[in-house]
Amino acid sequence: MEPILNKDEYTFYLIGNVDDFTERLGRVVRLGKEEIAVFKTTDEQIYALENKSPGPRGGTIAEGIISGEVLFDPICDWKISLKDGQVLDPDTGQVRTYPVHVHGNEVRVGLVKNEGGRFHE
Amino acid sequence: MVKVQERRHLVLIGNGMAGINTVEQILKLAPSTYRITVFGSEPYPNYNRIQLSYVLEKSKAVEDIILNDWNWYLENEIELYTGTTVTHIDTEQKIVKADNGIEVPYDALIIATGSNPFLLPVPGADKEGIVGFRDIADCQNMLHAADQYKKAAVIGGGLLGLEAAKGLLKLGMDVTVVHLFEEIMERQLDHTASLMLQAELESQGLKFATGKQTEEFLGDERVSGIRFSDGTTLDAEFVVMAVGIRPNILLAKESGIAVNRGILVDDYMRTSAPDVYAVGECNEHRGTTYGLVAPLFEQGAVLAKYLCGVETKPYEGSVVSTQLKISGVDVFSAGEFMDAEGLSVVRMHDDWLRIYKKVLLRGGRIVGGVLIGDGKESSRLQQWIRTGTVMTEAIHNAIVGQSAVETGNTAAELADEEIVCGCNGVTKKHIVDAINEKGLTTVEEIKVATSASRSCGGCRPVVEQILQYVLGDKYDSAAAKQEAICSCTTLSRDEVVTAIKEKGLITSKEVRYALEWDNPEGCSKCRPALNYYLGMIWPAEHVDEKDSRFVNERMHANIQKDGTFGVVPRMYGGVTTPDDLRLIADIAVKYNVKLVKVTGGQRLDLLGVKKEDLPKIWKDLGMPSGYAYAKALRTVKTCVGSQFCRFGTKDSMGMGILLEKKFERLDMPAKFKLAVNGCPRNCAESSTKDIGIVGNEGAWEIYVGGNGGIKARLAELLCKVRTDEELLEIVSAFMQYYRETGKYLERTSDWIERMGLESVTEAIVNDLDNRRALAERMEVALAQVKEPWSEILNNSNLRERMFEEISVSTKQD
């Protein structure tokens, strides 16, 4: 699911090359103040999610196990859709996602331009 | 392609179950190898002889018990001669000759002539009205007799006799069973079971004359009665002799083939004549002749493979079981059924419900059993007997268990709002509702649906009880034990491991593909498990799949709830040096760790380390990883031992360090802990370790299966050994045996209960060859282990991608 915001409302930042990421192994990207977990699936799709477990204990998600387009949360073993951050049955919750654009080998992650100035420094 | 005329010619003498079953299997294995000719004396195609009693009691017609109809022979191009009896085999010219003059040459010949009813050689046995009970003709004779006569006697209180008697009774005859012994079915049932069966049959209307030896048949042309050796007589207008069967060896014997009681065969059903085989009731294998159906299938399977050139294990005899085919009477018996020295007996006798169940164990393994009145578990019991399964609580419950509430299921007493799973806050009601609403049948499904037992697993037994309580009769404990390794597949651990070995699957992707996983990339349950099984089975070939490792094992450090990590350097046997201690302290300061903790396993834990600092800390420490995170050997806890302790009799520190250095880094199904004590005071707490070793004057005691964790369990004594070499070999064999048979995440405390201490003892203490083989496989596995911290330090690409963050500034916007 694409975010509701239109493309123009994001600023995209280059975070690296496709090769900087390993299939099915998450990597943490600090983008300004944001801590983002970036995943590359077996199909070479790249997803960016907030590196924060949706479970009650907190923790990070970058260390989870990736199966297809699902992430198994390393702390509470919840299933999270990489596409939209939705927590899958039987649990509920949502992880914030960031739009990703891949041009050639370059990977860019988008931050919202204006959300109470949160993403601007 | 093989042309028809080039096929070898297989001739089968005997159109019964044994021969045709063999042919069926040959057709499956190698359909174009043979051209087949079959001779049968009876005018029918192949039928199911064991169902004749149903024909007799008229619950089935002859057509209903035909196994292969005429079409089957046509479709398989089998030449069939019914009503034709083979009279001679020329084993030199390889030709069979039949009573109607037909001569057929063969390349391979199977004799499956079955058996004949044994007729008592007493005066008057040739009178009219005396029949055996063996084939459809006998059956039809009996049906006729029932129309004309009233009083019948069946001689023989065995399986066949009782079935015949019950059939005649159903046809309206007045039937007395005459038996030589005091107890009926004495070859299958013990005293209690025999009496219960007799009482049951008497209540149905059968009469019994037991302890009676037939001496003469009375009457003129037709039988009118029986005189016994005690002088008493019994009126009978019709007599069925069912005192036993005799292998039908006449043809073989007259053709010069070696016979004893039956036609002599070896483990591949070969007779003394070249290319002549014998299968089923007509043969004698290792001194045994069989009169039941299971052996003939087992023999047929071996023979079929042999004839098709398919590799097969030799036939080594059968465990026979008996099931009385009388409607309304459950009688089952298999293997050993009499109490005897050296056997443990599990017995349940309920006079009111008229149920009697008995299971016999030798060394904890199921070797036989009797079920009267309730035969629901008969097929599983037979399976357990055949495979020599070790008795477990679940099996015990399945066989002689009463209803769930009586066996201590307290699930009913739990309040709805009581928290069952403390880790995830799941109540009983939540679980019950999920079972009812979603139709759940396994703990695994409950785990997925409710999270109960998903974290530490300590509540799993309670969850299982709730499931049992809600499902009642529908609960299948054996299925629960063999449940799938995860929801991506229906296959159990054993099925997956077998398939990996048999199909030679090397990567988990191959496993998921070949075994048709529902989820092509697996899940957080099966991925680590498959990675473990593959590494265990193919220590040299399998490449560890990092993306299938839990974070702790991938990062080689313990993830904490705030996303930081705990680092534990190896400290062999809990022993360190002042220099190492100083180094650890300096590094704790340098990296600003939040807490330094002495662990339960005598090591130091540096807590609160940032992920990207992990490789740096490892480098600065220059020590091996302590594996405080791994499904592997964690620690070997030791006491001071003879080096310093006043009481120490053995060098526990030395042995502990030796063991830890030998077995460190090797993947195990679950975390694994050892302790070595220098004396029985047991300061290193060996009774709660996977392996606890206690040094005595002159010997080491080895305890196994202890656990101080979720499910506390005291270790049990495995054995005592005198030398350090023996100690090392047994520890090595034990660990390897656990590696090879354990389910992923199954601690030894659960594993040993599942396997049974006795079978483990047999496998690694008593069976010296097996012990050595296990220890050798352990060496192969150990040769593959690598120190993970240094491996990552030496691989900059891996280090960068796994541990280092990417930092991007947004300031320029």
TrEMBL record, chain A:
InterPro entries: Rieske-like_NirD, Rieske_2Fe-2S, Rieske_2Fe-2S_sf. Keywords: 2Fe-2S, Iron, Iron-sulfur, Metal-binding, Nitrate assimilation, Oxidoreductase. It comes from the Bacteria. Residues 13-109 form the Rieske domain. The keyword Metal-binding applies. Pfam families: Rieske_2 (PF13806). This is Nitrite reductase small subunit NirD. It comes from Paenibacillus polygoni. The gene is nirD.
UniProtKB/TrEMBL annotation, chain B:
Residues 630-769 form the Nitrite/sulphite reductase 4Fe-4S domain. Residues 419-468, 485-534 form the BFD-like [2Fe-2S]-binding domain. Pathway: Nitrogen metabolism; nitrate reduction (assimilation). CDD domains: NirB_Fer2_BFD-like_1, NirB_Fer2_BFD-like_2. Residues 560-621 form the Nitrite/Sulfite reductase ferredoxin-like domain. InterPro entries: BFD-like_2Fe2S-bd_dom (IPR007419), BFD-like_2Fe2S-bd_dom_sf (IPR041854), FAD/NAD-bd_sf (IPR036188), FAD/NAD-binding_dom (IPR023753), FAD/NAD-linked_Rdtase_dimer_sf (IPR016156), NasD-like (IPR052034), NiRdtase/SiRdtase_haem-b_fer (IPR005117), Nit/Sulf_reduc_fer-like_dom_sf (IPR036136). Its cofactor is [4Fe-4S] cluster; [2Fe-2S] cluster; FAD; siroheme. It holds the Pfam family Fer2_BFD. Residues 9-284 form the FAD/NAD(P)-binding domain. Residues 321-388 form the NADH-rubredoxin oxidoreductase C-terminal domain. Keywords: 2Fe-2S, 4Fe-4S, FAD, Flavoprotein, Heme, Iron, Iron-sulfur, Metal-binding, Nitrate assimilation, Oxidoreductase. Belongs to the nitrite and sulfite reductase 4Fe-4S domain family. This is Nitrite reductase large subunit NirB. It comes from Paenibacillus polygoni. The gene is nirB.
